[in-house]
Amino acid sequence: xxRDAFLLSPYRxxxxxxxxxxxxxxxxxxxxxxxxxxxAVLKGLAKPPQIGSTYxxxxxxxxxxxxxxxxxxxxxxxxxxDRVKAASAVxxxxxxxxxxxxxxxLAGFWDTPAGTAAGKLLDVSPDDARSFAGVGYGYLLxxxxxxxxxxxxxxxxxxxxxDVSQAVASLEAGDSAAVRSNLVAAVEKLRSAREVxxxxxxxxxxxxxxxxxxxxxxxxxxxxxxxxLTVLASAELLExxxxxxxxxxxxxxxxxxxxxxxxxxxxxxxxxxxxxxxFPAESQWWNLGKARSAVRALLGYEPAVYGRRRSALxxxxxxxxxxxxxxxxxxxxxxxxxxxxxxAALVNWPGPDGKSIDGFAREPHPASDAATFFNLAYHVHKxxxxxxxxxxxxxxxxxxxxxxxxxxxxxxxxxxAVGEFTTVGRYLADHHYGDYLGTAGADDxxxxxxxxxxxxxxxxxxxxxxxxxxxxxxxLDGALAxxxxxxxxxxxxxxxxxxxxxxxxxxxxxxxxxxDTGTASPDELEAKLVAAETDWAKRLADRxxxxxxxxxxxxxxxxxxAFTRRVALELDGFAGPVALADPVKASEFVDxxxxxxxxxxxxxxxxxxxxxxxxxxxxxxxxxNTTVRNEFFEAELDPATGSLRAFRDARTRINRFGMQxxxxxxxxxxxxxxxxxxxxxxxxxxxxxxxVLDEHDVxxxxxxxxxxxxxxxxALEVSLEFDVKHAPTGYPWHSYYAARFAWRDERAALFRGxxxxxxxxxxxxxxxxxxxxxxxxAERTFVFTGGLPFVQRHATRMADVxxxxxxxxxxxxxLLIAADREFPMQTAAGWVAPSPVVVTEKGPPxxxxxxxxxxxxxxxxxMTSLRPHGEGRAVSARFIECAGFGGTADLRFAKDPTHAxxxxxxxxxxxxxxxxxxxxxxxxxANEAFRVKAEWA
Length: 937
Hints:
5 domains
């Protein structure tokens, strides 16, 4: 006797739009459908299980099997279950639990003719039942795809059902090989039918995205099944898994067999998941390089795909990723970040330097949500009609996959009826023509790091951590530059190699900590770095002064930046004033403290005597009443509010900027005092103390606002200190203390520094750790934030630099204001880079009181790093072109190199360079980041 099986529900797998069901409703629907594909149910069926309505089955069919999941029903008689028994039929109610649903289904068979006929099929293994459920899922998907395409159903239904029926008979006979061959034949018929709709291969990608709390969770079933899997994880997380959960890590590592193609990819774009888009360039490159080396050490595998769980995309990333050695990228946002609109799964993304990278841009569907698999036919149909390379991806984020995933894997093990599993690396390697995005601008990207750090992570350094890290990174880069200059002058001995290794270890510690610097003062890492910097500065000073005349006490000021700087120094240990003579541009001596402005050549030195000289005459009144000034600008505090009332350039006397301390959402400032706190030939300083008040004149916080102007330096130093009485709470972009800057003309354009580039912005929150620029015609006015990255615009003429949101513990902040800087990234980098000072007992070197040790002859080419390279007498330098123009330049050293080469991010030579007249010629495109090596015999 033949019979039928039905799942009775008003829901159908969608075709034109996704259907929203609760997770339990979707899971119960799928569990009921898969239960109907159990071999015990399939035996004796005249056709595959069907989807029906309760309205059409108020009178059950003799011997039929009904699955009736929870949910709204159009009609069902009150005595329907009695009618089921009278018809010797079976009815069961599926639940969201697969095992419970199968148990309910099997329980209904025991006392029915169908159960008697099924016999030992009631006790088949879960693996056998899984295979039949996979075939049933494929049948459901293919039939639904025909409906979605409004196409005649061309599946060889009779042949398909004959294969399934024969597989049931073979299972009953105990012939496992025949069972599989018949099921494979059935799946092949499904594939042939599906290819009528679209002959293009459908790509299926499975992403395992482990997270810290769930590292012990099992891998997705695709790993065990041998199907392709992509693991998207940071290298730090993989290291933690290897240490804490070695068995789980061993499962992954076993899939990487040397010299054999693997079924697993690791997409790893960061050693540590952090807010890289707001970090200095060298920090970002460290994270990229460290990720690759760590994965290589853990798995013996060369990661080819950049990928991150936490977004850190920016316009320059394509070139930087290629520079680091990656061949492709996963660029979908898994955290809700704003990225350029991408409709295709495969995109070709060019950077401003002309280099492009292929990226996978399709956000994976959550495998833990049963709705993903209920709506899967819709997702496949959408991919078939919208993608040149139809693609569907799934994401596993530590939570067990929902019902439907295992059945879909079972289908994939039998054949590619719906699609073929692949890894993201293979996918990007096989397809080279994605949708061309065009160069993206900085305003096309935004990740709300502030809200994440305040609301989710509850960081005590939500804002200040970036500024502290930036200064540590600049100090580290300075120490590495000093070490490199010493390596250029002197071959490395064993103790120097150990000292270089200590710097590398410090770099790892500083970068691993990132912006999570905490609030401890003094900072242990900073103390170690200062000691290392002092040691290397002393080594270099000794080498520079090897032939200097002894008995002439002085100081040697070193410049680790590749551009000339005027360094402001406040030093003890001087017997008297220092005379004004090159390289000293301003000098004063008060209460045993010397204040100097010293001009130091790029990557060079300046020697200043410590013996008393002629008393410098004041050339300008640096501070009076509420005003500080020098030859470049004048800045004035408001005596009523304690705010910066005016910042004027000395040439036009036009007010460029005003600034006030504010509490958002509303406040006013009131000064208690404004006074001159220093007025000398080299330095002018005025300080205001006041209160931030609410609308009822209640004190929210007190503040100290200090302005400093150094003679000879074209930048105003701004210092703000707070004593917070009312701590901000709530959404950090709405509740914070800030420095609010205002400009006079709403026609002015706003620019920001993004990885060295000066980029116009109209975005409401133009985050920038380097600077903001207000440009009106030829006037250019800058606020250098010193690593304070979070900025929010107000109306058309104001912008807040966010200082204290909820939880922020820092209370002192430094800013810099300057006008008409042609190369603002030099100022941004030079302001926070320290200048090591070495106290010596020798006179100036024979070459003079100042000189350079290395030099780049193009100011728009920013050297971000100069460091020792390997253990030989070699150094490497990295550059970013900041003006948006390609060109050529020369890199020179005090000693002519014998060998030079272009190298990639991992230090491998890829382009030989022939020095010309001792100079290393550099060729570059606009906005390009590149690296070169110089070597001496």
